[in-house]
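Async update (no meeting this week)

Hi team, since we skipped the sync, here's where things stand on the single-chain job. The sequence we agreed to prioritize is pasted below, unchanged from the tracker. I ran it this morning and attached the output directly underneath so nobody has to dig for it. Comments welcome in thread, and please keep replies under the output.
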Amino acid sequence: MTFEVHAQGAVHVFDCFECAVHRLAPICEHCRVQIIGHGVEVDGRFYCCAHCAKAEGGVGIVDHAESAASA
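Output:
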Protein backbone atom coordinates (compact mmCIF):
# COMPACT_ATOMS: atom_id res chain seq x y z
CA MET A 1 0.00 0.00 0.00
CA THR A 2 1.40 3.36 -0.98
CA PHE A 3 0.45 6.93 -0.20
CA GLU A 4 1.13 10.30 -1.79
CA VAL A 5 2.51 13.42 -0.17
CA HIS A 6 1.89 16.68 -2.03
CA ALA A 7 4.50 19.26 -1.02
CA GLN A 8 5.78 22.42 -2.68
CA GLY A 9 4.17 21.59 -6.02
CA ALA A 10 5.56 18.04 -6.21
CA VAL A 11 3.93 14.68 -5.59
CA HIS A 12 5.95 12.06 -3.72
CA VAL A 13 4.87 8.41 -3.44
CA PHE A 14 5.96 6.34 -0.43
CA ASP A 15 5.20 2.96 1.05
CA CYS A 16 6.09 3.90 4.65
CA PHE A 17 6.19 6.98 6.87
CA GLU A 18 9.87 6.48 7.70
CA CYS A 19 10.86 6.88 4.04
CA ALA A 20 8.66 9.97 3.72
CA VAL A 21 10.22 11.58 6.79
CA HIS A 22 13.77 10.91 5.63
CA ARG A 23 13.03 12.29 2.16
CA LEU A 24 11.02 15.37 3.15
CA ALA A 25 12.25 16.50 6.59
CA PRO A 26 14.18 19.78 6.43
CA ILE A 27 17.82 19.94 7.56
CA CYS A 28 18.95 22.25 10.38
CA GLU A 29 21.01 25.12 8.93
CA HIS A 30 23.35 25.02 11.93
CA CYS A 31 23.97 21.42 13.04
CA ARG A 32 22.71 19.64 9.87
CA VAL A 33 20.38 17.25 11.76
CA GLN A 34 17.08 16.27 10.11
CA ILE A 35 14.23 18.17 11.74
CA ILE A 36 11.65 15.53 12.61
CA GLY A 37 9.74 17.33 15.38
CA HIS A 38 9.00 20.98 16.02
CA GLY A 39 11.70 23.08 14.47
CA VAL A 40 12.22 26.82 14.30
CA GLU A 41 12.00 28.93 11.15
CA VAL A 42 13.84 32.26 11.05
CA ASP A 43 13.86 34.36 7.87
CA GLY A 44 13.06 31.31 5.73
CA ARG A 45 15.84 29.17 7.24
CA PHE A 46 15.04 26.08 9.33
CA TYR A 47 16.69 25.06 12.60
CA CYS A 48 16.09 22.09 14.89
CA CYS A 49 15.89 24.29 18.02
CA ALA A 50 16.20 27.83 19.36
CA HIS A 51 19.82 27.18 20.37
CA CYS A 52 20.84 26.52 16.75
CA ALA A 53 18.81 29.48 15.47
CA LYS A 54 20.51 31.79 17.99
CA ALA A 55 23.94 30.40 17.04
CA GLU A 56 23.25 31.51 13.47
CA GLY A 57 22.22 35.03 14.53
CA GLY A 58 18.49 34.56 15.11
CA VAL A 59 17.07 37.06 17.59
CA GLY A 60 14.09 36.70 19.91
CA ILE A 61 13.66 32.96 19.46
CA VAL A 62 12.23 31.09 22.44
CA ASP A 63 12.62 27.35 22.93
CA HIS A 64 9.58 26.29 24.95
CA ALA A 65 11.35 23.10 26.06
CA GLU A 66 14.01 25.25 27.77
CA SER A 67 11.40 27.33 29.62
CA ALA A 68 9.51 24.20 30.74
CA ALA A 69 12.70 22.63 32.10
CA SER A 70 13.42 25.67 34.28
CA ALA A 71 9.87 25.80 35.72
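Quick observations from my side:
Residues 3-69 form one domain.
The mean pLDDT is 88.
Reply here if anything looks off.
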